[in-house]
Amino acid sequence: MWTSFLARTRTRSTGRLEEQRRRLPRLKNPAKIWRNLRQQNHAHTAEGKHSCEDAVQEVEEEEEQLEEVSRRLISREEQLFSQESASEQEEDQLQRDYEALRLQLWMAVNNTFTSSTTPSSSTTPSSSTTPPYLRLLRSAVLSIQQQEAQDQTWRGRGLEGRVPEWRPQRCLSTHNALLQKMVESRLAEAVAEEPGGAEGLSSPLKREVCCLGRRVKEDLLTVSRTVKDCYPASMDILNLYAALYHHDFYARLTQAAASGPTSDDCSYLLFWVNHCYPQDVLKHEDLDGKIKTACLGSLLPQEHLERLENQYLDHKEDKVKLWLSAALKKEEESWLSGGTPELIDHYFFSPLAIDVIQLMDGCLTEFKCVIRDQTKAQKITSHLESFLCSYRKCVEELVRGNHGNVRQVLKAHLVCEQQLRDYITGQTGSVVSEQQRARCLDTMSALRDCGYGCLAMPIHLHLKKCFCQVWTSVWLDGSLPVVDSLLDFLYKQLRDWTDLQPACRESLLSRLQQDVVLRYVKRMMKTGPKGRKQQVDGAQRMTEDAQKINHFFSEGGCTQSQWLGEMLCRLAEILRLQDPGSVQLEMVSVANSFPDLSDAHVSALLSLKSTLSGVDVRSIRRSVAENRLPAGSANQSPPFFSMVKVKWINNKINQMGLKKGMVLVSQ
User: If we measure between CA atoms, which residue out of 243, 307, 321, 317 comes closest to residue 270?
Assistant: First the structure.
């Protein structure tokens, strides 16, 4: 290396060069300084320690000389070439002295990373604690600047007078070329050395990439924390080093990518290219904002990057599909063999959802660090969507098969449904599209409906029979406690739900309360009161029933559906009121609280008010339409009336302004 530097400045005959070598130089022997610095960096024994101290003393002496020697050489040069004629012997001596100075400059630069220990923070060390090799580097940089200024001075003089053969010296370009060689050498050494910390990696390519990346990070941190203070800001030494390390790292990774890496190596390579290097290295707290990352670009060419990402995606899709299929198959085999899910804390439990969530979460976490375009994660999550569809079909087939363990299995998998729902809504974030998320949640709702329908089947059969007695004379006068009888039946049936996980039990109870109230309202809108007295008595009975229903479910642990009882009370209030203006105000209030209360529902409710004239009905309907709040306004309840299907039988009757429209309500 040093021979190549010297060769650039030797322009005289071979004999003359040999003479110069024999007569070299007035400054201290650069080879000795080089040897002492090497001893300083590798001193571990007591004997080495003494050598290190000697080396430090030598460096300090040289540090004091470099900048001053450079200045004196320039002064001698100016004096020598200001004369009309100069002694050839003096000129030769000056050139030899310049060669010796340059050699020491390059040795000082080459020893930039002499110390194996870097400061633990970005705090700049004081001059008293600055290592000698850094003080020597600072002096060398100042000398380089002096020589560059002298080159410019000679360029400014043009062709006037004699010009030294060693001008221009181009110390700065030589310095930059040396940095490039140093970077290449340090990365090559990093790969060849024992891979400390990389031993656990499973392949040579992984170990190589890890060693390269660690060396890049360590050296850039060294430059940022200590080396850059040896250079003027105008040289922007940190970005110069960053560009050199990036270029060589890029070349090595490009070669690795072209070698046809395995799928495992591919993911590790992408991990470094798309995450570790841009995030952990370039955005390290000591480097972030200091390195012009936009000028560096990616660590791989675009075509290599796309090929590796496609390879990774294809491999990961196959793996995810295989894992999900195997997990579901294992669970299904357990059902069909008659196995009963395990009890944890007295509740039935299946590990399927946790296994699936851990699998998907691990894949998506890795995906975020490996693939640049996060929308491509939908290729992975599409397999979750397919899995959920298969899962639902398997559960439905289990129910149709009428297996003896079906109720226990459903209780365990209602817990799975809740866990998967929470994961899809809360943790998948932006990697799942809104369309995918909606389809997954629809599938989960179908799975919940299947489980609820099976567990609540005896209750639903009784509901239909029980509510046939509502709005009969014995119900109106209170002699037939329909709701009391129903709640007694529910209390006995719901003992079978005590081994359901509490959150799932509350969800099913909420659904059951909704079905009870829904059946109640449908019966009311289909049969309803026939006159003023029935309206008033029926309203009183409805209010009492609503309070009993709310109390029953609240005592059972379901507090999220209390609004259903309140809604029944408000419908009862519409029946009780007889003044058209009061009915109108209450109807507008109900319509604003329940945005899915359609005009058909309003007409159906008003058809129960036999005391209202056709003019009153039209006025109330018009007022409701004009005073509706926008959907999504505050204090609006969840959908309910959209599940109550109504249709006009005779639109003409309504248009003619008769007292009421005839409405059919589906059961």
Answer: 307
Q: What is the pLDDT of residues 53-100, one digit of tens each?
A: 454 455 455 555 788 888 888 888 887 877 777 678 888 888 888 888
Contacts of the segment 619-625: beta carbons below 8 A, 24+ positions apart: 619/580, 619/584, 620/580, 620/583, 620/584, 620/587, 623/584, 623/587, 623/588, 624/584, 624/587, 624/588, 624/591, 624/599, 625/599
Q: Which two tokens stand for residue 384?
A: 């979750």
Q: CA angle, 149 as apex, 144 and 153 as ends, to 5°?
A: 145
Please name the CATH architecture into which domain 305-455 falls. Orthogonal Bundle (1.10)
Report whether 564 contacts 549 (CB < 8 A).
yes
Q: Strand 663-665 vs strand 646-648: parallel, antiparallel, or unpaired?
A: antiparallel
Phi-psi region of 125 (alpha: psi -120 to 50; beta: other; left: phi over 0): beta
Do residues 524 and 435 touch, judged by C-beta distance below 8 A?
no
List residues bridging with 348 in a β-sheet.
343
Residues contacting residue 412 through CB under 8 Å, at least 6 positions apart: 341, 348, 349, 350
Report how far apart, in Å, the C-alpha atoms of 333 and of each of 20, 328, 337 are.
90, 9, 6
Cβ(27)–Cβ(100) below 8 Å:
yes
Annotated domain spans of the chain: 2-169, 204-300, 305-455, 473-503+510-525+533-575, 577-667
Closest to 179 measured CA to CA, from 116, 226, 228, 245 = 245
CA angle 328, 334, 338 (to 5 degrees): 145
Confidence of residue 3 (pLDDT cuts 50, 70, 90): very low
Q: Is 657 helix (H, G, I), strand (E, B) or coil?
A: coil
Higher-confidence position of 430 and 198: 430
Burial class (CB in 10 A: 0-12, 13-18, 19+), 594: buried
Phi, psi of 650 (to 5 degrees): -140, 95
pTM over 0.90: no
Within 13 A of 507's CA, how many CA atoms are on the CB side? Answer: 18
CB 546 within 8 A of CB 568: yes
- As a residue count, the chain comes to 667
